[in-house]
Amino acid sequence: MVSNPGNRWAVAASTFVVWGLAAAGAVYWGLKLGSGRDAAPVAPAVRSAPPPDAVAIARMLGAVPSAEAPVLSLASRFQLIGVVANRDGGGAALIAIDGKPPKPYRVGAQVDDRLLLLSVESKRASIGPSRNAPPAVTLELPRRQ
């Protein structure tokens, strides 16, 4: 029998490489198949329909468009409940806004998001957009019965 020592190492190295590739393939497929079962499938994105246009539906069903809502005057939003005035032009007023409970406001205080209490007198209060502007609304106390 003829033996070649160089050939023996080549066979051993190639065997080692083949088994290494087989082990790597087994690990790859084991991880690939094992992780696929635990992962939840991703739900497809669903587009929601826009909300229906109530006016268009009413017109389609034969509704007649009504007159627009009346615009309330600025003075109708405010009601003067009480006044405390001094001779120097200072003081405070008790004002109810939009039917809410009345709150006290000093002269120069912000009454609404764009209105200030400009001045108070014995039975009236003036409200305007700024201290230098003319009053937009003059409120008067209701007459006693």
Span of the ends, CA to CA: 137 Å
Radius of gyration: 43 Å
Taking the sheet with the most strands, its summary is:
3 strands, antiparallel
Query: What letter string, H or E per element, gives the SSE order?
Result: HHEEEEEE
Summarize the amount of helix as a percent range: 25-40%
Uncertain runs are none
Strand residues, percent:
15-25%
- Net shape: elongated
Give the rounded overall mean pLDDT: 83
Strand line-up in the sheet with most strands: 1-2-3
Structural class: alpha+beta
Count the beta strands: 6
Number of helices: 2
List the helices and strands and how they pair.
Layout: H1 5-38, H2 54-60, E1 78-85, E2 91-97, E3 103-106, E4 116-120, E5 124-128, E6 137-140
Antiparallel strand pairs: 1-2, 2-3, 4-5, 5-6
Can you walk me through this structure?
With 145 residues, this protein is an alpha+beta fold. Among the domains are: 1-35; 75-140. Helix content is 28%, strand content 23%. The protein has two helices and six strands, in the order H-H-E-E-E-E-E-E. The protein has helices at residues 5-38, 54-60; strands spanning 78-85, 91-97, 103-106, 116-120, 124-128, 137-140. Strands 1-2-3 form a three-stranded antiparallel β-sheet, with no helix packed on it. A hairpin with a 5-residue loop joins strand 1 and strand 2 (91-97). The model has no long low-confidence stretch (mean pLDDT 83).
